[in-house]
Amino acid sequence: MDGLARPLLVSLVTILVFGVGSARALEAQSRGNRGGAVAQQAVTLSAQVKAQIGDFYFSRRAANAQALPPGIRRRLERGKPLPPGIAKKSAPLELSSRLTLPEGSEIVEVGLDVFLVEVATDIIHDVLMDVIR
Fold first, then answer.
1. Overall pTM > 0.70
2. Contact 23, 77 (CB under 8 A)
3. Is 1.10.443.10 the CATH number for 47-128?
């Protein structure tokens, strides 16, 4: 029985090790990462960058900023893409040149809110609500 137990144990360990990795790859694929690699950590703005953005918009009053309708605003959350056709504006160059942003991300204005979005997919990574006034 000892001769059979060792290969069985090795097989079991192999399944556990590679099975966990496969489960992670499948989970990453289901989240939109089609490369099969493990999903990346959440991309967010640092407290310092959030303070810089808040200070910038506090000192610069927007003349024609309007809030989004509540139904649309409710759908704008982390991990979801910006809806197609939503009125978004890139952050002013004066602001974006000061900030250190994660690679492949940009700051956009939507209504009274500021979003960190992935350039390629428009996935929302971070939200600053009611910053533009």
1. no
2. no
3. no
Residue 69, φ and ψ in degrees, nearest 5: -60, 145
Give CA–CA dist 67/111, Å, rounded: 5
Backbone angles phi, psi at 96, to 5 degrees: -65, -25
Query: Own/partner pairs for 27-35, CB < 8 Å, 24+ apart?
Result: 32/121, 32/123
pLDDT for residue 65: 80
Q: How far is it, in rounded angstroms, from Cα 25 to Cα 38?
A: 6
Q: Where in the chain is the domain with CATH 3.10.450.160?
A: 47-128
Alpha helix ranges (H) inside 1-133: 2-30, 47-59, 70-75, 93-96
Q: Which amino acid is at 11?
A: S
Average pLDDT of the residues in 14-21:
48
Give the SS3 label for residue 114.
strand
Token digits for 46? Answer: 């640092």
Determine contact, residues 76/126, Cβ cutoff 8 Å: no
pLDDT in tens, 61-119: 777 788 899 999 989 999 999 999 999 999 999 999 999 999 999 999 999 999 999 99
